[in-house]
Design goal:
Elements: H1 4-7, H2 24-37, H3 50-57, H4 61-74, E1 77-80, E2 84-87, H5 144-157, H6 172-186, E3 195-198, H7 201-212, E4 218-223, H8 227-235, E5 239-246, E6 249-250, H9 252-258, E7 264-267, H10 281-294, E8 297-301, E9 327-332, E10 344-347, H11 350-362, H12 369-380, H13 383-409, E11 424-428, H14 435-444, E12 450-451, E13 466-470, H15 479-490
Parallel strand pairs: 4-5, 4-7, 7-8, 8-9
Antiparallel strand pairs: 1-2, 3-10, 5-6, 9-10, 11-13, 12-13
Helix pairs in contact: 2-4, 3-4, 5-12, 6-12, 7-8, 7-11, 13-15
């Protein structure tokens, strides 16, 4: 049998770049991800030993070994005892087919109208001060003094033109800071001109829906899924189709059966809301394959991706997008800092920027310049990375306190199937227990849990019963009493 370095010399095409914001290890990881995604590296292919590859590429063995370990953890590679490292065989039937990008349909100006509201806001009755309220970061850990100093600097030093309408895509220094951060933290390599600043993630969904769909076109939404994003799509005139979610995330086969001709798919692959699962690599590749075949786009909501407690953050789906430009990435500072800031952004392929920018301006989805300038300084000077590290330590403590309270006070009434990501837990309830009246009773006692059944799209069919319990903005000492109260209500 030929040696792999001769039969598959793709790694010889790796070119390091000193100007790249990513480290050499991260550059190598990105290179192999792309090779697996575009089919250049076929499943089951054996890779050179780390020592051999390091010599061939002129890298340190530590760099190559680290890249292999990360790719194995992410599911791209697999280590076989005594046999070496291979491209994962389980994705053999799931690699996306890279085809020429078809001409993209442009939205007809003025053709989109609000049709109807879909359900009640899951957070409309919750008080942020109540324990176990989901959807909130640690507001008590917000860097008030630092933020105040940075905003004060804007008012002291910014020239008069910055108080005008500003750039239609958003403040350029903020887009530059975000491009650098996304490349280093999420593996999303983009340019500032591919970023559009928005007043939060919900506005980003609305802008994308208005720019890419006409009234009546179908859109995949996760079922259960983020109700605010669902409402944005419906208000834009799209026909939202609920696609089932399991332990591997969005079920692409279910989507193909229900709406193969959908124009968009709205997904949260790094941390699915509300179930908290991470989309598997096989599902991610299958989703990209469908988008290429259907000439569709994927809206990736990457909220809470930084907060994983048992492994490193999963790479963004957009990092696998390759040259097809199918993924529009949505990010927000709401869960990293505070929802009240209303600051989000879109990262899109070049061909979509004009449409997104036009809708952003037409719908007046602008963000105040003082906020953009303050955020640019906060991110660009490294304060965001520091805040994330401190927040993760705090959330690790609060999450452990909630799990401990459920174990000690739950009395077997509450079970937690998944708990490795994000700022909330999903707890299952005993049979015959209805989560809707239970949540109402809990809120009457100032406990901010929300019912899981309220996140399902279809009015008919079986809805799972459970409770969403937020720990991000709940102090550790408040967990035990809140769980005791909930269990007394269940009993």
């Amino acid at each position: 049998m030929k040696t792999r370095a001769t039969a598959y010399p793709i790694w010889n095409r790796f070119q390091r770049s000193l100007d790249d914001p990513l480290s050499l290890r991260e550059q190598l990881v990105r290179f192999f991800r792309k090779g697996v995604a575009d089919g250049t590296l076929q499943p089951g292919i054996r890779l050179p030993a780390s020592r051999v590859l390091a010599q061939e590429l002129g890298l340190s063995r530590i760099t190559v070994s680290g890249a292999y370990e990360q790719l194995i953890a992410e599911g791209f590679l697999e280590a076989r005892q005594g046999a070496g490292t291979y491209v994962a065989s389980r994705i053999a039937d799931k690699k996306p087919v890279l085809t020429a990008v078809s001409p993209q349909r442009q939205p007809a100006p003025g053709s989109l109208r609000a049709r109807r509201l879909a359900g009640t806001d899951s957070m409309s009755m919750a008080n942020p001060a109540w324990p176990l309220t989901p959807g909130l970061p640690a507001l008590d850990a917000f860097p008030y003094a630092l933020w105040g100093r940075l905003e004060g600097r804007f008012w002291r030093h910014r020239p008069t033109p910055d108080l005008s309408y500003g750039d239609p895509q958003g403040f350029l220094p903020l887009r530059e800071a975000l491009a650098e951060y996304l490349g280093a933290a999420r593996g999303v390599v983009c340019h500032p001109h591919q970023i559009v600043i928005t007043p939060g993630a919900q506005a980003a969904v609305s802008i994308a829906a208005l720019a890419l769909t006409d009234i009546g076109e179908r859109v995949w939404v996760e079922n259960p899924g983020y109700d605010a994003a669902y409402r944005c799509l419906v208000l834009a005139g799209a026909a939202a189709v609920g696609i089932s979610v399991d332990a591997e995330g969005l079920d692409v086969d279910d989507g193909r059966n229900r709406a193969p001709d959908a124009r968009l798919a709205m997904v949260s692959p790094s941390h699915q809301y509300p179930m908290g699962v991470t989309m598997s690599l096989a599902r991610r590749l299958a989703l990209l394959e469908w988008a290429n075949e259907a000439n569709a786009f994927i809206l990736e909501d990457d909220y809470d991706s930084e907060f994983r407690y048992e492994c490193a953050p999963a790479p963004a789906l957009k990092a696998l997008d390759g040259g097809n430009g199918r993924v529009i990435y949505i990010g927000t500072l709401s869960k990293l800092l505070a929802p009240g800031l209303r600051l989000g952004f879109l990262v899109a392929p070049d061909g979509l920027i004009d449409a997104l920018r036009t809708v952003r301006n037409g719908a007046d989805y602008r963000v105040p310049m003082p906020l953009q300038a303050t955020a640019a300084d906060f991110i660009g000077n490294g304060h965001l990375g520091t805040h994330i590290r401190r927040s993760k330590a705090l959330y690790t403590e609060r999450r452990a306190a909630l799990l401990s309270a459920i174990k000690s006070e739950g009395g077997g009434l509450l079970t937690v199937p998944t708990a490795s990501t994000g700022l909330h837990l999903v707890t299952e309830l005993p049979e015959q227990c209805d989560d809707q009246p239970l949540a109402v009773a809990a809120r009457e006692r100032q406990i901010g849990v929300t019912p899981l059944s309220g996140y399902f799209v279809d009015a008919s069919g079986t809805k799972r019963q459970g409770l969403l319990m937020g720990f991000g903005n709940t102090r550790s000492e408040s967990m035990k009493g809140a769980i005791q109260t909930l269990c007394s209500l269940i009993e």
